[in-house]
Amino acid sequence: MSAEAATAAQVRSFVAGRKRRTHLGFLILALVVILSVVVALTSGPIAIPPQRLWALARSTFDGQSSGQSSPGLARDALVLFNIRLPRIVLALLLGAALGVSGALMQGLFRNPLADPGIAGISSGAALAAALMIVLGHHITGVDAALMQTVVMPLAAFLGGLIATMFLYGIATREGQTSVATMLLAGIALAALAMACIGLLIFISDDRQLRDITFWTLGSLGGANWQKVSVVAPMVTLLLGAMPFLARGMNALSMGGAAAFHLGVPVQIIKTVCIVLVALAVGVSVAAAGTIGFVGIVVPHLLRLAIGADYRALLPMSAMAGAALLVIADAIARTIVAPADLPIGILTALIGGPFFLWLLLRRNRNIDL
Amino acid sequence: MLQAVGQTSAKGRGIRRAGKLMLALALLSAAGAPSIAAERLQIVSVGGSITEIIYALGAQERIVAVDTTSLYPPEALRTKPNVGYLRALSAEGVLSQNPTLMIAAEGAGPADTLGLLKSAGLRVVLLDEQPSTKSVIDKIDEIGRLLDLKEPAQALSTKVRKEFEDLDARRKTIAKPLRVMVILGFQSGRAMAAGRKTAADAMIALAGGINAAGAMDNYKQLSDEAVIDAAPDALVMAQRGDDDVLPANIFDHGAFKATPAAATHTLIQMNANYLLGFGPRTAQAAHELMSRLYPTTAAAKP
Q: Which residues are CB-contacts of A65 (< 8 A; sequence separation ≥ 6)?
């Protein structure tokens, strides 16, 4: 008990200097998230001006009778509520999941290069998706529509989970998980998955090849409420566990042994962390393909700004990740309108230079 | 967070229900109308051959947007908004062009986007995209029906059918079919050749040749040994643009030196879209390829 109190005191004193900055950070991030949603709601290839947005909101609350007043209003309502809003909500959920998962994986693996998919999720999901794109028709015999809307996302999700379980099994001996083993096994598994994808690419035709390329760049283009309702519970689970995980990660950042002697249930933290991240990232990848960079850049950016206290870092990573993805998606659907740009291109284009600028501005080295 | 998500999704569902009701009403009124084409059609054309057919029917002013595969005629992509690659369409992007009809090649998508477009009340028609003469003629007839341009479409499909029949007759005069290899380009010096199950394979057959790379499926890079083993009598280079660089001395070195094609220096260059597009110009392209493959035989003249 006293050890726990000591940890808490230590953490408290560490945070004290940054407390005001953290509060300010939360406020700014909240504003950025709200602003990004408003901007995203009002931007797209179909111009819906803000006053129209207000009219739509009012007619929705008043009931459906006013919807018939103008045919343009009805179409805008359809576009807004069935196309744009599910995209934005999905972007919020995925961005939050990727941001938090990135922060957790970097902390757990004590590796600044760890991304949300490091525990095998990305490799497994990508292999399963490529398998379905190239051979899915022969394996399952379902038609193209069912393949794209149900079978492929399900396969990607399961592929990610199986890969993670496999790595977890390899790295766990006598009830103790070695993150170093898991990291190395993950690299081997990723190489193996890439080889298999290469084989699939070799036997694929032109279209399948382009499908694989587009999938790996990610897109929120097919977002609908059904996808949102599948993704939301998994992501909520991860976000709900943040307070519990944050305490554990703070202790783990002093090293596994130190954390254990401080009375932190290290193995439980590791397991919960890996399982929740696998579920949230797995379902994200299934819904929108692999979206890179958010999970790496967002947590590091916040570490530079507010420090490494996970109690602030995790919720802020969720908020910043959500805002980044919402903005990136808004740009994705307007910049080459009426076409859609794959969102993975934009997250890297926005995140990369900003991150470099922060690193250059900084005159001391970062630690996790 | 969860609460907010729950609320918005419930709201969305309500609106979607309203949307479905409106869609049902729209469909009812459409069924009552004598002809859909009586009102002004605004078409999003997705697929190279589909755009080409609509232009050939002279109905290009009804196209409000095309996709990136609509390469012919070149003014299609130059003058019309581009909704992106046919496998990666954006629902809002397509709807922003205010279309009343989307004609797309089979395989256009993603399926979720097609679902959104249909739920927004857009009529989506998918056309078969096999590289075959039947598919070309069916596409012309179907597009003519959709656009209420039956007469011009019939004229076009009759002309194309006649061209294909002439092609069949000419092909019968070929005594000894040549082994033909269609090359799509070179990647680090290796030829990307067309195997079975490709538009190129169908085109070689139409022009009275045998696919020299018929031992493999799809488009693949060939090793030097595979090129020698394929023993093509003629090389056909499908050019994607003006800047395509063809190794000028292709027959002087590498595996191609050992092929029968090198002995006769038979290298035919044709535009890739013209050669492989399987649109209204396909019969013409096949005639041209046949004439160039067999310049001295009875099959030489159309």
A: none
Token code pair at residue A175: 């009830």
DSSP per-residue codes, A152-210: HHHHHHHHHHHHHHHHHHHHEETTEE-HHHHHHHHHHHHHHHHHHHHHHHHH--HHHHH
Number of H helices, E strands in chain B: 12, 10
Dist. CA A356–CA A293, nearest whole Å: 13
How far does the CA of residue A366 sit from the closest CA of chain B (Å)? 32
Q: Does the pLDDT value for residue A84 go beyond 70? A: yes
pLDDT at B24: 46
Token pair, residue A227, equals 């996808």
- Can you give the residue range of the structural domain that contains A250? 2-361
B17-22+35-158 topology per CATH: Rossmann fold (3.40.50)
Average pLDDT, integer, range B99-107 = 95
ipTM of the complex: 0.81
Is A368 inside a domain boundary?
Answer: no
Q: Which two tokens stand for residue A98?
A: 């990727």
Query: Cβ A82–B83 below 8 Å, yes or no?
Result: no
Residue A206 at interface with chain B, using a CB cutoff of 8 Å: yes
In this chain, the answer to whether the domains covering B17-22+35-158 and B176-300 adopt an identical fold is yes
DSSP classification of residue B182? E
DSSP, res A46: S
Q: What's domain B176-300's architecture? A: 3-Layer(aba) Sandwich (3.40)
A337/B96 CB distance under 8 A: yes
Backbone angles phi, psi at B248, to 5 degrees: -60, -35
CA distance linking residue B160 with residue A306, whole number of Å: 70
pTM for the whole structure? 0.83
For an interface test with A, give the residue of B1, B7, B80, B219 to mutate (most A CBs within 10 A): B1
